[in-house]
Structures are given as structure tokens and as C-alpha cells.
Amino acid sequence: MTFIELLSEYHIMPQFPPGAVRQAEMMPKEVRDSDLKDRCDLTDSLIITIDGDDAKDFDDAVSLELMENGNYCLGVHIADVTHYVAENTPIDRAAFARGTSVYLVDTVIPMLPFELSNELCSLKPGVVRLTVSVFMEITPRGKVENYKICKSFIKSHDRMTYAKATKILEGDEQLCTKYSHLVSMLHNMKRLAAILNKTRVHGGSIEFSTHESKITLDKDGKPVKVERYPITVSNNIIEEFMLICNVTVAKHLAAKGLPCVYRVHEQPDFERIERLARVLPVLGVEFQWKPDMRPRDFQRILDSVSSLDTCDVVNYLVLRTMSKARYSEKNLGHFGLAFSDYCHFTSPIRRYSDVAVHRMLKESLDGDLQPKRLDFFKELAVSASVTASVTEVNAADAEIAWKNVKKAEYMADHIGEKHTASITHVTANGFFAELANTVEGFVPARTIEDDLYVMNENGLSLDGMRTKRKFTIGDTVEIKVAAVDLGEAKIDFEVVGSRPLPAQRRKSAAKRRTGKKELSRDEKKVLKKLKEDSYEIRYQRMENRKKADFEKNIFENAVTFEVMDILEERYKFKKAEKGFAGVTVRDMASFVVLPVYRAHLYETSEISLKNALVSASKNVKNTVEMLGESFGFATNDEARLAAEYVCAALRHFDACMKHNDISWAKREKEYETLMRKIRERKERSK
To answer: Under a CB-based contact definition with an 8 Å cutoff, are residues 402 and 192 in contact?
Structure first.
């Protein structure tokens, strides 16, 4: 997969629309005096940023003071993006459509143009920047007693990195001398972060042990090193500070009864917990199942294996049991963190959910909201929640896919090497194993020649039918890098030391054979049954996917054609303009159908059809107006017509997914009829 193919597959637009580019070019280069009006002046406060070595967009800064009563005064200062990105402007529309920044190893596809993300909004040291500050008075027991939220401006004193801050905390003499003015504050931050973590875990928050990859590329973009991303004490400090800030903002909005884009994480469903209850005892882990399990029940499981070899696999299994976190206009709480109120507020440069929360929060600071604005924010909370949930998954999938490409390129130079790997996942056809550097490969069962291996009914292991040898999740195994498919970004391993099956004794020596073909009658029956069951499951999944993809393709084609037809009635695109507009509209069509598509394909109900329609209407209007701004034509009537059609088409898509008949020509006719009826109704109403 090439970089261009990746962008196309995940509908990621590297360029901003012309309207957003023009607006970005007109942005001021520095903060103006007029921008500072009615803001708290924090330029004399000791405020710093702590980020990764290669970070360019600094959207959060922190400060900490010890109060006379023994409490901590923690300040979290977040870039005030919405001061520059007003509602329904070209940049706002582009940011809403993107939903999030996408981080692809050494490349960033930003949510906001460079002029904002890396310059005007980035909290660079030594320059004045506009912020929204949250000051929290926290007791030595980790309780937030008081808080204050205000619009402010700061001048970051130092740009710290996780590596440097950690070395200072570890007593590096050279850095401690250079940053002597920060040493005391950093140690106080470490103490407060430990308090907050202890309080959070005591409240039931689940502490998963996970790891990410760090891939180093040379100047030509070739991977030269793959390793685990180091998590330091400084990472933990910033994580705890951002968590408590997000909780404080969510509680503030909830207490005032204001709309919010909440970050929610629901309790695991019954089937997942029941499966975990069957699996853990096999690994020797005591597990008492109950219908009302709380976060601390899962944390006890993780604590019980923290010093054992099975720690990673149990973490993996418990994590798989969890529901997926998402965004919602409803305050459903966060199960994993054990928070009753939680939102994302601290990264408005790279997440649109945070931009929406900033708008709601800042306007509430100026007084009570008028009913019309309250209704506007309620609708924004719905549309932003759906959009943020879908774009987050899309961006995460793209990031994983590109990391897999780079890992495959890296391992292509290491074919034949032997390593120790940990088994992470078992399938009917083999198992996945991960090296210490996070590279994962697949070991096909057919390549393990010393026996016939079948997946155990608990799904935890591949079991040899004769030798009783097992390959269980969490086991370490010696492997050899066998092959790399760069096109598919897949890596194959082989088990080291596997020997061919011995020949079975037969009546006739002439019929003797070696290898896996020499199976007993019972073994053949087992193998046949496994193949039949596996085929039936795979066939049903394939048919469901085929049906869903069929309906999705027709929907996208119909929407792209009809919306472009609406636009071309208003504006005659030049050839290059039409290409850009067509891709933009198709990306929009692919995006708005995803919540309903996934709901049917994976049988989930996380996003209701009602909310999907609200989000679709917003996205369609947003896209049409974005194109109008880019090419200089009015789009009010066109945006409303397009939104009405797409919502009708989405309802039809939902209905089509519920029955099995498949006819491309028939379905196209149905979508054409929808548009004709809408146009006829509008003509009658004139």
C-alpha cells in the first residue's frame, strides 16, 4: 500500500479546500492587543508545555503552585482555537469534516491549517498566546475543592519534552542546573500526579498496561528502527492533569445543564463478560462473575497478575472485553476511568469534539444562553458526537494501517532472523505473535509440521491432536521471520524447531506416507467438522459484508451523482474544479453512511439512526457550503435540498440493509425516485 492509496482508502484529504486556505492566509501572524480584551493576564506566571520531542502543535500548558492551606493550585491552559475559528467559517467547516488530525508515523494530516495548528494557536515558548484556563484547587487527598475557568493569555516560559522533564526528576545534574527554576515545580507536579492517580485508581479506574510503537525513519522515509514507545513519569504527569481538567469541565457543563460532547464508555455487555469468565480460569486467574460488575472488579483481576508472565495476555483479554469509548451528547459516564462526568477539552488543535466543547463552555462564561443558542448547541452536540466518533475510528485505522506498512518494510530486511515472540491472538488457521519491538506476525498452523493443530473451543490455544503440544495466548515461542508481503503489509513467522509428523503404520508399506496427510479416521472427522464450521462462519460473514458493501457503494454513487447535479445547476465547474468537488462530495457520502453501515454490519446500536440523520444533515450542508465558499457561489437553497435528499437516501439505505434482495439497477432507480419526489414536492410548495 502506497501513501496515496492509504489516503484514498480512508478518505483522508491532505489538502484544505481553497476557502479554508484563503482564510488561513489572512490570519494575523501574532496575537493583537485587541485580542487581549477581557482576558486574565497570566504572562507573569510560570507556565510550561511538556510534549514529545517531535511535537509541533502545543495545545496544552500547565502551571502549579502550593497554597498556604497545603492544597495545590493546578492550572491547565488550553489554546483558544475558537477565538480564531468562528462558527460556519471555511476553516470551521473543514475542521468539522476532518474531525481529527491524523498522525501517520512521520507525517501529520492536521485538522487545522498550519497557520493555526503550528503557529498562531500553538503555545510556543516566549510568545503571547490566547488560552482558556482551568484553575483547580486540589487537596493532598486528590479532591478538587474549588475551580475557576476563564479566558486568558499566557507566555509559555519553557518548552519541555517528556525526556528532559523525566531526566530532571531523576536528578540529571546538567539539566537541573539549566532548568533550576523548574526543578521544584516539576517535583511538585510529580507528587500531585501520583496523588491524582491514586485517587482515580481507588475510585475504580482501570489501569491497563498497553504499549505503542515508535518507528524511526531515515531521510528517505525508510524505517530503520522499530521499538516500544517509552512511557515516562512525565507522560503520566500530563495524562493525570489532562484527565482531571476534562472531568472538571464536564462537571461544570453538566451542573449548569448545558449541552456537551461527552466522552463516554459504557459497561461491557453480558456476552463479553461471560466469555471472559470462561477464559480466565484456564489461565489460572480467579474470576467471580456477577451481572453488575464495576471497574474496580476488573482492576482486581489486573492487579492479581501484575507480577506474572500472563500479565500481558490478561490485560489483552480484559481490554477486549471492554466496550469502545465514543462521543455522545448524553452523559453516560466513563466506565473504564470510573468517571460519572467526562469530556474532551484539552486538545482543540487536533480534535473537533474539543472545539465544540470550547464553544459551549466559553459562551456559558459570558452569561446564560438564549433558547435559540441552546437549541443550536444541542444540535451541535449530536452532530459533533457522531462525526467525532466516526472520524476517530477512521483515523485510528489509518494510523495502524500505515504503521503496519512501515513495520513490513522494516522486517523485509530481517527475513530469516530468529526471535522470541509472545502469542497475542489465536485463530482457527494459526496464531499471531508479537516481538519485543511490537512487530506482529502470523504463524500459519499448516507450517507447524510436527502435528495437526486445531483451535481449542475456548479460543485461547492451538492444540496438537497427537502430541498434545499447545500454543496458548501469552506463551513465548521461538520464531523465524519467514516472509513479508509488502503489498498487503503482512508478516509471516515460522515456529523454530518444528519437525515433520512421523509416518502412520499402515497394512501396506506401499501406502505409507509422511506429514499431515497421515491422519487417523477420528482425526479426519475432527478436521472435516472444523473445516465445515469454519467455512460456514466465514461464508456468512462474507455474505453479510458483500451485502453491506453492495448497498454502501450504490448509496455513495447515488449521493455523489445527485449532489453534484444539484451543485452543477448553480455553478459550472471547470475540469480541475469538478474533480476536487467530486472527490469531496464522495468523501462526504462515504462518511455519512458509515454509522448506519457499521450498525448493521457489526450489529451495534451505539449511534441511533436519528442521530446519524442529524449528523448527516450537518455534514451535507457543511460540504456544500464549503464548496460554495471555495469557488465563489451561493449555496443556501442547494445545501438544504442536498441535505434533504441525503437524509432520505440514508433512511432508504437503512431499510435496504434489513432485507436480502440485491439488484443494482433496481436500487439505483429507487434512489433516483427519491430525488424526483423531493424535487416535485418543492415545486408544488412554491
So the answer is: no
